[in-house]
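Support request, please re-run this one:
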Amino acid sequence: MASTVISHLSLHIKPQKHIHPVKPVKSKSFITCCISVESQLTSTITVPNPSLRVVFAAGGAGAQIFPAVAIADEIKAISPDAQILFIGTDTGMESTAVPSTGYDFTAIPATPLARPVLSFRNMLIPFKWAKSMAESWRIMKQFKPQVVVGTGGYVSFPICMIATLKGLKVAIHEQCLVPNLANWALSFLADVVFVGHNSSLDGFSCDKKKIIVSGNPVRMSLRKYVSKAVARGYFFPKLAQVVDSDVKVVLVLGGSFGANSMNIALFNVYTQMLSERPDLHLIWETGVEAFDEMESLVRSHPRLVLAPDVDRFAETRFLNSMDSAYAAADLVVSRAGAMTCSELLVTGKPAILIPSPNVAEGYQFKNASLMADLADSRIITEDELDSTTLQTAIAEILDNEQLLTTMSERALQAGKPNAGAEIAEYVMSLVSFSPVRD
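Re-run finished. Output below.
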């Protein structure tokens, strides 16, 4: 508990070793590609000959996992009896994120390609990939999918490669402006390539006729109407009796892994901000890895919510969903990941974006620049970020109601809320041309 200015947070990161055992399949009649909530797959996957099954290859970060879940949800909405299997690694966040959504998950051994490509560390990659592909083949043979959807990340490469060798339909989705290496390579083999933006087209060398600018699919819950008053009540119960115009809520998203520089900048000024603005309320997502340290430093305040991850509020006393967090917010301060940017557009949220400098090839700065063009989002680079810069940027937007309205309207106009449904329909249309392969 302290208000002393800090310039460094020491994070002690423990590797996660969560492995989700799975149980035998309890099946109903299947039409497309999801399973019932009670169904669970084992390492020996037995399928009672349904007419259609879909595999999702997704792993690594939320930018790859959440779009896959969004597409799967849309397929499930179209065909409730559908059967879906997610394949990832047992060390990535997909090993916990996917099972929590109710979908079956199984893991394969997969190894990322080190940068640069000619690095000594990549010498054993061919042998490791051979093992990944052998395991992918075994899973495909037992599950018998008819279409495979890859959403990027190194785990998608062996799965989609095996799908191609087995003559299955393959669809991939690229969220970022510049394709990751796996998606770039798979684009030559895939039947269809979905991309989030028109600007993404230039990053692919495959036949442009197979590329569809779909937008990035966001979680269905974010597209449902959530009352601002109700959402704020979840985080700040006393706001139920407060007139909406008398309150400003700022949502700070450090991401599931956290953003050390953002946490430091806000820590050094949050007390002053809350003191100077009686109308200000903060929802502060520190990131899981930084939460314990930040919780020990940040003073409790009735207008401050501190959490490791907005989606983990239910583990304390808050709602387990991002939809309420976005609905409650007047302004969002965030990194500039591809999926976060898409969610900001769909929910119509004014934003201050702080691109991560730790992402390859400046992806996040490119995302932030596009958001500035589309929705007038403000950009603070890592070099510019400090407590004064952050406080000033927040105040300039909150104190200008017309600017808040304009930024929100522009974001909504640029958003593509139906991207997931359109991708799901296209993926399902591929299946009628794809017989089951043994």
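The two ends are 61 Å apart (CA to CA). Residues 1-7, 9-49, 312-319 have pLDDT under 50 and may be disordered.
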